Amino acid sequence: MLSPLRDFLRAEASSGVLLLVATAAALVWANSPWKGAYHDLWHASAGIEVAGHQLRMSLQHWLTDGLMSFFFLVVGLEIKREVTHGHLAGRRAATLPAVAALGGMVIPAMIYLAVAGGTAPRGWGVPMATDIALAVGVLAVLGDRVPSSLRAFLLGLAIVDDIGAIIVIAAFYSDGVSIRWLVVAAAALVVVAAARTARIHPSVVYWLLGVVCWYGLYRAGVHPTLAGVAMGLLAPVTPRVHADLIDQDDLGDLSTVGAAFETTAMARSSVSVVEWLLHALHPWTSYVIIPLFALANAGVQISADSFSAALRSAITWGIIAGLVAGKPIGIWLASSGACRLGIADPPEGSTGRSLVGVGSAAGIGFTVALFVAELAFADAEMLAEAKLAILLASTISGLLAVAILATRGRLNRR
User: Fold this and answer.
1) Average pLDDT estimate for 201-226
2) Pair 222, 170: CB distance under 8 Å
3) CB within 8 Å of 79: residues ≥ 6 apart
4) Is the domain defined by 4-44+55-173+223-237+272-413 classed in CATH 1.20.1530.10?
5) Does position 43 have pLDDT exceeding 60, yes or no?
6) How far apart are CA 227 and CA 188, in angstroms?
7) Distance from C-alpha of 347 to C-alpha of 394, rounded to nearest angstrom
8) How far apart are alpha carbons 270 and 79 in whole angstroms?
9) Going by C-beta distance under 8 Å and a sequence separation of 6 or more, which residues neighbour residue 255?
10) Cβ atoms within 10 A of the Cβ of 165, count?
């Protein structure tokens, strides 16, 4: 009776509120008399040592490289579910979101390179990103003025956008790759696939192999969060036991502790690993990890001088132009072209105006854009300009999306 799409949208929309609160808190803290404490906290060093191997990073990097791996695990699980049983299952169903997402990535990157390519070409990946939580949150604010077909279209588009971001991170933001450690990570994934084939069920086996893969990628120089994506894509989408083979009377037996444990095992075996992990992890990533990431990374010090310098920076204008203009233009052009060529069907009840509105919502690139900016800019001044541009562009895109889609809703009611 549960709608996976409705459940996903509800969690993403409500987590968007926490994300905004965390962002506001980071900005206030970083510009308060206690800004030194903000810097000291996230740059404090912490490490672990196992069998003589020590891993030490700042708290900010533990969040970016460690906890964000769970976020990308959820992304991988969601991609697997949508491709197999969801809105991206089947060629025709996946064509429109895929083509729209491609247009919404290529055009912003081209606009950025045209504006800032001579200053900081590595930043071209920043305006390609879409923040699912905030984009879905904008549509949730508009309520029934946005048809469910457009919500599904935005979700599919954002998922394909995530796939594109993953490819970009792996291919263009992983420097000095160590083949030896890359082989270690790949071997861990091969063992995961073999364990699945051999029907090895204890989850601790897969968590340990995931840690090995993460550490291998980290030592290889490839961003370790990709281990989360890989593990998500390898998770099985079919349950071990079909629900029809489980007696409902047995599920209701809670007479003893042993019976309760058996009931839990039966219920879990009737749900796929993908669904189970999404159910278990999605609240943690939406309500804890993403807000913490925003709190650690959105704290840009804003002064009259820094703001003036950012407004004179090609990086700032490249990111703003890419997200605010490039996203809706790219999505509208690609979607309209695909529909006119007859290779895809437009979302039910949609118009060119509504596609532009959804494109503006996709221009809210907050979380993943900040993530890519951390990888793209080693210079602290450039990184600060990029973060400020992301904040401004995401705000403008959100307001434009509300204005466009709310006006559309009023016209429909008339």
Assistant:
1) 87
2) yes
3) 88, 159, 162, 163, 229, 232, 233
4) yes
5) yes
6) 10
7) 24
8) 21
9) none
10) 23
Residue range 77-86: mean pLDDT, rounded? 78
Backbone phi, psi, residue 312, to 5° = -90, -5
Rounded to the nearest 5°, which phi and psi values hold at 2? Answer: -90, 135
Q: What would the two tokens of residue 355 be?
A: 């596609």
Q: Which residue has the tokens 């792996």?
A: 170
Average pLDDT over residues 285-304: 83
Predicted local distance difference test score (pLDDT) of residue 2 = 47
Residue type, 30: A
Backbone φ and ψ of 53, nearest 5°: -95, 120
Would you say the pTM of this structure is higher than 0.70? Answer: yes
**Averaged pLDDT, 269-273:** 73
User: Could you identify the residue written with the tokens 């997200």?
Assistant: 323
pLDDT classification of 285: cutoffs 50, 70, 90 = confident
Nearest-angstrom CA–CA distance, 145 and 122: 39
Question: What local confidence, expressed as pLDDT, does residue 1 receive?
Answer: 39
What percentage of residues in the chain have a pLDDT greater than 90?
20
DSSP β-bridge partners for residue 48 = 55
Residue-wise pLDDT for 343-401, tens only, equals 887 877 778 888 899 999 999 888 888 888 988 898 888 988 999 999 899 989 988 99
What SS3 string covers the chain?
A: CCCHHHHHHHHHHHHHHHHHHHHHHHHHHHCCCCHHHHHHHHCCEEEEEECCEEEEEEHHHHHHHHHHHHHHHHHHHHHHHHHHHCCCCCHHHHHHHHHHHHHHHHHHHHHHHHHHCCCCHHHHHHHHCCCHHHHHHHHHHHHHHCCHHHHHHHHHHHHHHHHHHHHHHHHHCCCCCCHHHHHHHHHHHHHHHHHHHCCCCCHHHHHHHHHHHHHHHHHHCCCCCHHHHHHHHHCCCCCCCCHHHCCHHHHCCCCCHHHHHHHHHHHHHCCCHHHHHHHHHHHHHHHHHHHHHHHHHCCCCCCHHHHHHHHCCHHHHHHHHHHHHHHHHHHHHHHHHHHHCCCCCCCCCCCHHHHHHHHHHHCCCHHHHHHHHHHHCCCHHHHHHHHHHHHHHHHHHHHHHHHHHHHHHHHHHC
Cα separation, 411 vs 349, in Å, equals: 13
Task: Determine which of 155-164, 258-267, 376-385 has the lowest per-residue pLDDT on average.
Answer: 258-267
